[in-house]
Write a structure and sequence with these properties.
Blueprint (H helix, E strand, L loop, with lengths): L1 E9 L6 H13 L8 E4 L3 E6 L5 H13 L5 E9 L14 H16 L3 E4 L3 H18 L4 H12 L5 H8 L3 H10 L2 H16 L2
Parallel strand pairs: 4-5
Antiparallel strand pairs: 1-3, 1-4, 2-3
Helix pairs in contact: 1-2, 2-5, 4-8, 5-6, 5-7, 6-7
């Protein structure tokens, strides 16, 4: 099994593309090389293949935090969990159920008024995880750009102390703690753990 994330930037025209494009590329590069593992297409859409499906939700949350770090910008993503039947030179030309689930779900998200959802062959997994994600997205969609920056730093380096994150962001440790608390970071980590538990049962 692999994970595939298909996404598009919300309000991409409201912000200078060079700004969010730089942030998006930087986080995608953490997960592989372009165009084999990730590709940006149609200007503001992208696809990312995650070799270990257990990492797919955390990758999506890192992307979310990186993009929301830019004021007025957001991202909509569909996670597909499944197989890979055709391995192409470009991720957008590869195929398999993971790509199909992710692509189909990405087309539905706008109609469903959702910014994050997941699909696999297992309807019970889909139902449970999408309930968690609906609740999670209520929190995440409300992040300020400063909260998103702090969450992104904490997700990228989970073993880093808050004082070190503060130095990286140019703020004090108590400000880091306050931002993470307002962003409900502990609850986000709990959802990631639940996802890892459930993905292991697929």
């Amino acid at each position: 099994m692999i994970g595939v994330i298909t996404g598009d930037i919300i309000n991409s025209q409201r912000t200078e593309p060079a700004i969010w494009l730089k942030a998006l590329k930087e986080v995608l590069e953490n997960w592989g090389k372009t165009p084999k593992q990730w590709e940006i297409y149609r200007g503001d859409s992208f696809q990312l293949e995650i070799k270990n499906p257990a990492d797919a939700l955390e990758a999506a949350l890192q992307i979310k935090a990186a993009v929301k770090s830019i004021r007025g910008t957001d991202v909509r993503m569909a996670i597909g969990i499944g197989d890979k039947s055709h391995n192409a030179e470009k991720v957008t030309e590869s195929n398999g159920s993971a790509f199909v689930y992710s692509g189909e779900l990405a087309e539905e998200l706008k109609r469903l008024k959702l910014n994050l959802a997941i699909r696999s062959h297992n309807t019970s997994f889909n139902s449970d995880m999408n309930l968690y994600l609906k609740l999670l997205i209520i929190i995440i969609d409300g992040w300020s750009d400063n909260a998103a920056k702090t969450v992104f730093a904490a997700l990228q380096q989970p073993d880093q102390l808050q004082v070190e994150i503060g130095k990286q962001l140019g703020i004090k440790q108590n400000a880091v703690s306050s931002r993470l608390k307002r962003a409900h970071f502990d609850e986000i980590i709990e959802v990631i753990r639940m996802y890892n538990y459930k993905i292991a049962e697929l």
